[in-house]
TrEMBL record:
This is Alliinase C-terminal domain-containing protein. One of its GO terms (molecular function) is carbon-sulfur lyase activity. It holds the Pfam family Alliinase_C. PANTHER family: BIFUNCTIONAL ASPARTATE AMINOTRANSFERASE AND GLUTAMATE/ASPARTATE-PREPHENATE AMINOTRANSFERASE-RELATED (PTHR43795), TRYPTOPHAN AMINOTRANSFERASE-RELATED PROTEIN 2 (PTHR43795:SF22). It comes from Psophocarpus tetragonolobus (Winged bean).
Length: 446
């Protein structure tokens, strides 16, 4: 391995500043992870992820003695110079869990394996790995979030490819005009460009489902819980010629109470948001109608001649580890993936609400708890995104936060007002803490 070059001008002053920054970071991390009884280190034993009862920033402030506070403040302000980019929903927050899983999710693929394009020629979706299909069905059974009986599975290169495959499959080549594609605002910001970027003659973005009043066939994308605002959703237009795509990327127990198994004609899921393996690029569709399955398969065949078999092996291994962790939770002293991820999301939302409620510059959506069949008790929705509103006379929340070096996505990309922004909650602990610290500082200052 190449050695890291030491900069020649590495002075004592640099060393002291670096050492101070590392110490502060250590104090922040220690306060964050060890704020509950008996929690030492980062392992996933049951006692390790105890709830944090008070705001982490307050704890970190208490942990820093007054004699060092001016130095710490200057370091913190230096930290505030760093731009934090929370525009994308890059789900890196589960990394620690997967590190702790070790070899349970390691795969070795010898050079001679998966040379063929074909996975299973007896299946309509001939590029679907049987092992992956088995693990999808098993996980939905374990979690209780989707009916799989009477459904075909279509695998895709992320659910992004499946959204396009579904639009292709649900539209008709013989129609006089492109079929309208709608979704209720605020909608996932990629839908309009996904529908329109190729200027297809088959389908066309027609905007907010709530104001859609055109007669005739249409496709509605129903995202539940919704990206960006986290609310549970049902179809909005409800007319006889409507074709529905249910995008349930976030219908997992860490984000929302699982009230019942979803039971729709065409439902999409992805490992990106369920387990955090966005880079594996694997999603799956549960589809009732065989003709739709054939057309989606054809689309993916024309697009990429199937879906990476290596990625499907990896995804199978990851889904298996998640199901195993749920089934073994009671017999072994370990937390299931969902319990672990639920607790992190709960901590983050608690800290976020505490910071937002401490001033009157921002507001957040409010959610009601509901019974979750997976956990067997009531849980709170805790979305993967913050749908933050700038109150008062700040009209452009995205520019305002950019001025504080927080990069977010403006509400206007979601068909909503620029008073709103979407901020990812799925980033690393360090970036999340920086966000909390910065929002707190903005409220203190303004
Ligand atoms: C609602 C929704 N659908 C689909 C996707 C795409 O996910 P994938 O990574 O599987 O392509 C995302 C990603 O952010 C999403 O939020």
């Amino acid at each position: 391995m190449a050695k890291l070059a030491v900069p020649p001008l590495f002075s004592l002053r640099h060393f002291l500043v670096l050492s101070l920054a590392l110490n502060v970071s250590l104090i922040l991390r220690t306060a964050y992870y060890e704020s509950g009884e008996g929690s030492k280190g980062f392992c996933l034993k049951k006692k390790m992820m105890v709830d944090v009862d008070s705001d982490v920033i307050d704890k970190s402030r208490l942990a820093i003695s007054s004699s060092t506070s001016s130095l710490v403040n200057s370091t913190r302000s230096a930290g505030r110079e760093r731009v934090i980019n929370l525009d994308h929903g890059d789900p890196t927050m589960y990394e620690r869990f997967w590190r702790e899983m070790g070899d349970k999710t390691t795969i070795t693929i010898p050079g001679w394996q998966s040379l063929s394009y074909l996975s299973d020629v007896s299946n309509i979706c001939w590029f679907l790995e049987p092992e992956f299909a088995r693990e999808v069905v098993r996980l939905h059974k374990v979690v209780g979030n989707a009916v799989t009986e009477g459904r075909h599975i279509v695998v895709g290169t992320g659910s992004s490819q499946l959204i396009l495959a579904a639009l292709y499959a649900l539209s008709s080549p013989d129609a006089a005009e492109p079929i309208s594609v709608v979704s209720a605002a605020p909608y996932y910001s990629s839908y309009p460009s996904m529908a329109d970027y190729q200027k297809s003659g088959l389908y066309k973005w027609a905007g907010d489902a709530e104001t859609f009043d055109k007669e005739g066939p249409y496709i509605e994308l129903v995202t539940s819980p919704n990206n960006p605002d986290g609310y549970r959703r049902q179809a909005m237009v409800n007319r006889s010629q409507g074709l529905l795509i249910h995008d349930l990327a976030y219908y997992w127990p860490q984000y929302t109470p699982i009230s019942s198994p979803s039971d729709h004609d065409l439902t999409l899921f992805t490992v990106s948001k369920s387990t955090g393996h966005a880079g594996t690029r694997i999603g799956w569709a549960l589809v009732k109608d065989e003709e739709v399955v054939k057309k989606m398969t054809k689309f993916i065949e024309l697009n990429t001649i199937g879906v990476s078999r290596d990625s499907q092996f990896r995804a199978s291994k990851v889904l298996k580890a998640v199901s195993d962790s749920c089934e073994q939770e009671n017999s072994q002293d370990e937390e299931s993936f969902f319990k672990y991820s639920y607790k992190i999301m709960a901590q983050r939302w608690k800290q976020l609400r505490a910071v937002v409620d401490a001033g009157d510059m921002f507001s957040l959506p409010q959610f009601s708890p509901a019974f979750c069949i997976f956990f067997g008790h009531e849980t709170e929705p805790q979305p993967g995104f913050i749908w933050l509103k700038c109150e008062g006379d700040i009209e452009d929340c995205e520019s305002f936060l950019r001025g504080h070096k927080i990069i977010t996505r403006s509400g206007k990309h979601f068909g909503a007002s620029p008073k709103y922004v979407r901020i990812s909650m799925l980033d690393t602990d360090g970036t999340f803490l920086q966000l909390i610290d910065r929002l707190s500082a903005i409220q203190e200052r303004e």
